[in-house]
Amino acid sequence: MATSELTYDPFDAATNVDPYPIYRRLLSEHPLYYNPERDLWVLSRFVDVQAAVNDAATYSSSGGVRVDDLLELVGPSPLTTDPPRHGLMRNVLRPLFAPRVMRDLEPTIAASVQRLLDRLDGRNEFDVAKEFAKLVPVTVICHLLGVPVEDAPMLKGWADAMLETVPGSPSATPVAWAASAAVRAYWLEALEARRSEPRKDILTAVAAASTGTTDLSVDEQVGMCNLVFEAGNATTGSLISNALLALAGFEEQKRWLAANPDGLPGAVEEFVRWESPVQSLLRTTTREVEIHDTVIPAGARVMLQLGAANRDPSVWDDPDRLDLSRPPKRNLGFGEGIHFCIGAPLARLEAPAALSAFLSRYPEYSTVSGKRFHDVALRTLDSLVVRVGR
Ligand code: HEM
Question: What atom of ligand 1 comes closest to residue 350's alpha carbon?
Fold first, then answer.
């Protein structure tokens, strides 16, 4: 079959609304794609993406893991650091996401979900993305970090503003830079307070690490606070919003879930696979790499298209179909290798708690309107208005 020339530009707004037709062509026709204007290589097949995330020596994260300016705005963190420093930084955060800590969080998560739903009670229509899904992780992350929950809207406002880029380009807007300065001042003050009055929270761990053997720089401290706040919020909020949109569109899947509540954890993995909140990661090659009969030079920027790899037909039957009853199989939605998502256990608590509570209160909801958020890596919704039929 003759096919037209493919142009894949991750900054294109139309692609962002529905990237899947292009992913299918990347997977079948261009397993290694090069966009000369962006000077960007793209890998999309599961085996290639998996091999790259497991080879940090060749595919470095230190040039940032997104194809825009965000690294400069948020500061360095384990996400954007290579070994050996990566391990030191990751170890500061790891104990704070240990299984026991997660188990203890369950009642906090359940209570916060119910509180958010109670606030919507009595309304026939509301924006479930803005008024529920995005708010579920905020309370929990404030609790873990140790910041007052009243500061959450301000912090969330800054975190969202930092994602703002000039349309069609990787450049951050002046609003994004202003937000970055404001949030930096906020974290520096909070970290200073923890040095004189330590508590059991992430801020204290980050503040203490800066004076201990790890000796984090000021920029790294700020970067780690930003990372935990942003990585913990935007991604999980996306997962819940994307899932609620999908369930409203696929009635038979919603019915299956209602009849099989034990299938919820598996369903959450399928939502992560089918509509991956993090669609792509960036890496920079540290040496020449030969792949698909082509040599990628050293120092090249390579986009790892998780959202495509998770729909690779050589791994999943009928990959574009949402099937909540699929037998469990690991997908790449939380990454893999040394940078594997530290917060995955938390997201795996929050999303099922939010979805089951929402579905039991509003089993018959339907969507009124939805609007995708334009972002080069994050697949999420700006808004999702639902009617709950009461
Ligand atoms: C559905 C929810 C989530 C998704 C899809 C997700 C996805 C990811 C992915 C793909 C990576 C790998 C990045 C890379 O290899 O460059 C990652 C790393 C990370 N995530 Fe998540 N994440 C989620 C939730 C969370 C939560 C709730 C937190 C914390 C509260 C969190 C904290 C982190 C951190 C700290 C890293 C960096 C780990 C490292 O570089 O060693 N994430 N996440």
Answer: 27
